[in-house]
Amino acid sequence: MLRLNTIENTVEHLDFGIFNIMQQRDPAKPAHTVFAEAAEQTLAAEQLGYTRSWYAEHHFSNYSLCPSPLMMAAHMAGRTKKIRLGTAVVVAPLYTPARLLAEIGMVDILSNGRLDLGIGMGYQQYEFDRFCSTLENVREFTGEMLELIHRGLTQEAFELQGKHIQFPRSSISCRPLQKPTPPIWYAGGDPAHLAWLVRHGHTLFVSGLLGGVSRMRKTREYFEGIAAKEGRPARLAVTRLAFVTKNKADAEHYIDCALYQQRLAVALKTRREKVANNYIVQEQPYDEEPSLDNIRRNLPVGDVDHCIEK
Predict the structure, then answer these.
(1) d(CA 170, CA 156)
(2) Looking at residue 159, what is its pLDDT?
(3) Which residues pair with 10 in a beta bridge?
């Protein structure tokens, strides 16, 4: 994870973190091994001086075995001392607002103020079906959830009467240590959400997927336009698949895994998923997928000089 805080197109601050989706490509690898490896990578990242470790949220498939990034962050809070622990991301429409508010406060307390709260709308109807829900109103619901989180964590007593969330006057007992709230990182492109993000000084996730920089550049320019209208700086986080190695075989394996992950994501997003062994999403090519050569050219995967250039 590379975060760029930009003011008038100048770099103010850079920091690096890791993101672990906790995917299970090999059905023979048990879940406890996948979780143990994610924990080990977090501990190694802390020792190496990385700023953050992020954990995904997905449900009912091997695309990610982690159903609760807040629970993973709470677990790692007791095993780490300095590294910040992030949710990438909490899928807001799948949560009961009252429980989410309390758990945010609890995890920030348990981590001694090291929680980074990633929030998103979700995109996999496959998951929403199993929560007896749909993607129909996720933008409106997520917008109301963002506002509720802000009110709930910054006000002693709060309420919200929205279209989708009617929250009576309440107060949470386990208030976060970070003031006014833990940093919020948003994954999505809804203009109203982006304006809210800028007004409150939070950060936008930008994903490069398997492509080059052109898509990320367009997203950055769009977000900076919204920030300019608000008269505030745009805070950006770039999520990038990257692997530094001198071993060509390891680099090729990483590129193959990157394509595998994207194939599963596209299948789940377009409702073309084919599931075997109850929850294993089958890998299948998709229209307009990049070639391995293109992925190799786009991603910072390879030796040190190649990755620095990218």
Answers:
(1) 8
(2) 98
(3) 7
CB count in 10 Å sphere of residue 108: 27
Alpha helices in 113-247 (DSSP H): 125-130, 138-154, 191-199, 214-230
Q: How far is CA 143 from the centre of its chain?
A: 17
Residue linked to tokens 């209208």: 229
For residue 197, which of 182, 181, 186 has the smallest C-alpha distance?
A: 186
What backbone torsions phi and psi does residue 284 show, to the nearest 5 degrees? -150, 140
Dihedrals φ, ψ of 54, to 5°?
-110, 150
The two three-digit tokens of residue 268, written as one number: 């789940």
d(CA 201, CA 231): 11
Q: Which two tokens stand for residue 44?
A: 């190694």
CA angle 42, 86, 147 (to 5 degrees): 175
Distance, in Å, from the CA atom of 134 to the CA atom of 128, rounded to the nearest integer, reads 6
Query: CA 87, CA 1: separation in Å to the nearest integer?
Result: 13
Residue 124 to residue 60: CA distance in whole angstroms: 11
For residues 6 and 236, the answer to whether their CB atoms sit within 8 Å is yes
pTM over 0.90: yes
Per-residue model confidence as pLDDT tens digits over 65-122:
999 999 999 999 999 999 999 999 999 999 999 999 999 999 999 999 999 999 999 9
Compute the distance between CA of residue 94 and CA of residue 122 in angstroms, rounded to an integer. 9
Contacts of 123 (CB under 8 A, 6+ apart): 135, 269
Exposure on the CB side of residue 21, measured as CA atoms within 13 A = 19
Per-residue buried b or exposed e for 190-203, using 16+ beta carbons within 10 Å of the residue's own CB: beebbebbbeeebb
